[in-house]
Amino acid sequence: MTGKTIDSYGKPIEPRASSERIFDNSFKIAAKAFAIAICLLIIWIIFQVFSQAIPAIKEFGLGFISNTPWDPIRDVFGLWPSIFGTLVSSALALLIAVPIGIGVAIFLSEDYIPSGIQRVFVFLVELLAAIPSVVYGLWGLFVLVPFLKPVGVTRPSMLPAALILSIMILPMISAISRDALSNVSKDMRQAAIGLGATRWETILQVVIPAASSGIIGGIMLALGRALGETMAIVMLIGNSNQVSTSLLQPATTISALIANQFAEAQGLQVSALMYAAFVLAVITLIVNILAQIVVKQLQKI
Amino acid sequence: MTYQFPTDFDPSELKINSKSPRTLFGFIMNGITFLFIGIAVVPLFAIVSYLLFKGIGSLSPSVFTELPPPPLVPGGGFGNAIVGTFIMVGIALCISVPIGVMTAIYLSEFSKGQLPEIVRFATNVLNGVPSVIVGVFAFAAFVLTTGTYSAWAGGFALSVVIMPIIISTSYEALKLVPKEVRDASIGIGANDYQTVLQVVLPAAIPPILTGITLATARAAGETAPLLFTALFSQFWPNFDTKLMEPTASLAVLVYNFAIVPFANQNNLSWAAAFVIVMLVLIANIIARVVTAKRQY
Predict the structure, then answer these.
(1) Nearest residue on chain A to B214, alpha-carbon basis
(2) How far is it, in rounded angstroms, from Cα B164 to Cα B167?
(3) What beta strand segments (E) does B41-173 contain?
(4) Which CATH number fits domain A66-300: 3.30.70.3040, 3.40.50.300, 1.10.3720.10, 3.10.20.440?
(5) Would you call A281 and B133 a contact, using CB atoms and an 8 Å cutoff?
(6) Fewer CB near the last or first residue (10 Å), C or N of chain B?
(7) Does residue A1 register a pLDDT over 50?
(8) What is the pLDDT of residues B272-288, one digit of tens each?
(9) Chain B interface, mutation test: which of A89, A107, A135, most B Cβ atoms within 10 Å?
(10) Candidates 3.40.50.720, 1.10.3720.10, 2.30.110.10, 1.10.10.10; correct CATH number of B61-65+79-292?
(11) Quick check: A265 contacting B, CB < 8 Å?
(12) Rounded to an integer, what is the distance from CA B130 to the centroid of its chain?
């Protein structure tokens, strides 16, 4: 033996050139560095918004969340009407979009229609999700608000804003619910039908319970979207800083407040808006993280 | 041995009894489902038909070449907004495509230990960050630092918005390449980077391009991040100032011209919305066609 490994062509096998190894390693390190950068990006976003909000946090503390006035002239700022509007508009949107979205998901995961036509519907739902929110806002302003005149809507207010929001989150709910429903194994459906259940007994007592964590995850992701939705809301909600129980009154949300006031804001008002953005970021982060955890649970089943 | 037929068996019980409450319940639920799908499709058709009706009505060759008109002046267009959107979407793609694809490569090819799980989680969280937060973040990180609204700040904000889309679509694309292809590449003596760059990535290019197309459409329609970063401008983008000045975009034009009480501006808003939605539609159709054909 010469001590060198010989391949079948009789040539010695050389170790890889060191330059090649360095390139290989640096490629892997670069890939890893970019991946870490994504994690740091989220921390950077939170940090930037928080650091801009510090003057307002020092000035108003936690009372900012429960205070009502928003007065740039006297530099007194409170977020309660915006938080109230955010919660009401999101809750109304979910109330409308959840039953319809799950209905659409059932329709698209059962064999009501041939699969070719089903794919067309799935594409239409995807398209609905891809239309930018400013286009929804434009349509809402010029078509939906005049259309709602018979029910008493005379100007941009809570009702058209909540309706447009429900149209916008509908595709999200139906797409994720449909995935969850069609992932339920065929055996379970067949077993239920074999036991004599009708189609709807199968759907309501077997398929939906089995898919429930996926559906709930989808609803929570949609809630996150609804809470942070900006352009359509700022165009349709009327941007009035008041707490009103009437759906026909103008209101505001946190994101609409930021989008509406940021351009003209100065001094402490900018900081107050950053504080509002920070509150919104925390709320949506919590909702999104909970949604992730619920969806993860689904994947384990 | 003869088979004893059960004496208490009534074959008519096997037929669907259309009057039984269980059957009726099914009918009612079917009806509700069809009603819901109707309710869900109506807004889509209402929006698309209105866009076609108002958008095409307001389109003319001049809207693509002229500058936005001042109030009460007829004519005009949004040529500068189209150029601005192209510039900022281009900047966004230049930032997020390399970072996003490299992250996807890390997740699908070199994932080891806890970090990939965290990165996937971070990507999903980033996808859920409202675009208005991205806007104020880019304002604080970019506009306050450089002291001016600019196309660069707008492009940066858009890149944050589309980053999760690029990562997740590229990751799915790389996952579609079978493991055997990687094994074969390593078997003939390729390095890891050679395997990734010369074998796996080329095979995954069509679905990655699909993801980039969808991300482009998304970026072209994003408005909130641009409100705080690029603002708007009545003029053509100025390359002499290296784009360090407010820049117009189609999405912000739709917003600005929708909320003013001037009919000519409103019409331009519809026309710009039509252009954006056509872009989205084409991107989605391309995505459908490309993903229908699979290499492996």
Answers:
(1) A130
(2) 5
(3) none
(4) 1.10.3720.10
(5) yes
(6) N
(7) no
(8) 999 999 999 998 888 88
(9) A135
(10) 1.10.3720.10
(11) no
(12) 14
